[in-house]
Specification:
Elements: E1 15-19, H1 27-39, E2 43-46, H2 64-76, E3 82-85, H3 92-96, H4 101-106, E4 111-114, H5 119-129, E5 133-135, H6 142-146, H7 148-159, E6 166-168, E7 173-176, E8 179-188, H8 189-195, E9 208-215, H9 219-231, E10 240-247, H10 252-263, E11 270-272, E12 285-287, E13 290-294, E14 299-302
Parallel strand pairs: 1-2, 1-3, 3-4, 4-5, 8-9, 9-10, 10-11
Antiparallel strand pairs: 5-12, 6-14, 7-11, 8-13, 13-14
Helix pairs in contact: 8-9, 9-10
């Protein structure tokens, strides 16, 4: 697995587009998020269909065609320096195949930020565009609006990425001790399992440091997702595993034995409670960069800044 192309960092006055590739966005949360971005001296612009709601499937922010058009237009706009997803939910997979990847590649690299359902886009941007992306808080997300750590870590990654080359949650513990080097990738476990066999999914995490988290899932379903990744060979040759939050899943003392059972036999370092994902104060983790995991120290040290 090779390191991917790093987009440019942001500077004061940079224009950032907010899009909604997945679920519907509450207007009051969007406006609050825009205020935060303006407070960072950014110039946020809202894509035309961000506040839409699909007339039949109310779990979608408008039609697949409109959501894809918003993302593509923002990405191909030369005045836009970064594209921030408003929220997750569900729907990114429905619109990914509608994007004109050749046009987006021609537009050149820029920053993409999101997590949860946006895992499908992290995979697609890696395989189709070869770009580093940021697994981080979203513009209308509650954590982004309410949590200082989540805000400040994302802000530092965007504006001064050399200051956050060492990522440490401060409370992580080693499930399997050791050190490993590799290229970061991953996201929401359910989405990674759902992506298997699709045109934009990587067939293997060999040589990678795989980041996994999820929300609102029962333990047997998480077991199913991990077992699917194992049976599909995705974890063959993986260098190490970082486990983030399991917000609104079963109590961790019930979840942990299953994670240890499915991942402990890989023979690679595994660190738990690393502080990214749906939990409070989520850290921003760049995907597509070379890094070293120290499971005992609870650190992920990037070879270089996430953004150039």
């Amino acid at each position: 697995m090779s390191e991917l192309t790093r987009p440019a960092r942001l500077a004061p006055g940079a224009r950032v587009a907010v899009v909604a590739p997945s679920g519907p966005v509450p207007e009051e949360r969007l406006q609050a998020g825009l205020d935060v971005l303006r407070g960072w001296d950014l110039d946020p612009v809202v894509a035309p269909h961000v506040l839409d709601r699909h007339q039949v499937f109310d779990y979608l922010a408008g039609t697949d065609t409109d959501r894809a058009a918003d993302l593509q237009a923002a990405w191909c706009d030369p005045s836009v320096d970064a594209v921030l997803c408003a929220r997750g939910g569900y729907g990114a997979q429905r619109m990914t195949d509608l994007l004109d990847w050749e046009a987006m590649r021609a537009a050149g690299p820029k920053v993409l930020v999101g997590f949860s359902d946006i895992t499908a886009l992290h995979e697609a941007f890696a395989t189709r565009l070869g770009l580093v992306t940021l697994h981080g808080p979203m513009a209308a997300g509650i954590d982004f609006l309410k949590n200082t750590r989540a805000q400040e870590h994302l802000k530092a990654t965007l504006f001064a990425p050399e200051t956050v080359r060492v990522i440490a949650s401060g409370g992580s513990t080693p499930m399997v001790p050791g050190r490993a080097r590799g290229v970061t990738l991953g996201g929401c476990l359910a989405l990674l399992a759902a992506e298997l066999g699709t045109p934009h999914a990587r067939p293997s995490a060999r040589g990678g440091l795989l980041c996994l988290e999820d929300v609102g899932e029962e333990t047997y379903r998480l077991d199913r997702y991990l077992t699917q990744l194992l049976r599909a060979g995705l974890l063959d040759g993986v260098g190490g595993v970082l486990l983030g939050s399991w917000h609104e899943c079963e109590p961790y003392e019930r979840l942990r034995p299953m994670l240890a059972d499915r991942l402990g036999g890989l023979g690679v370092p595994v660190v738990e409670d690393f502080g990214f994902g749906h939990g409070e104060g989520a850290l921003t983790v760049p995907f597509g960069v070379m890094a070293e995991l120290d499971a005992e120290a609870g650190t992920l040290t990037l070879d270089g800044p996430a953004l150039r």
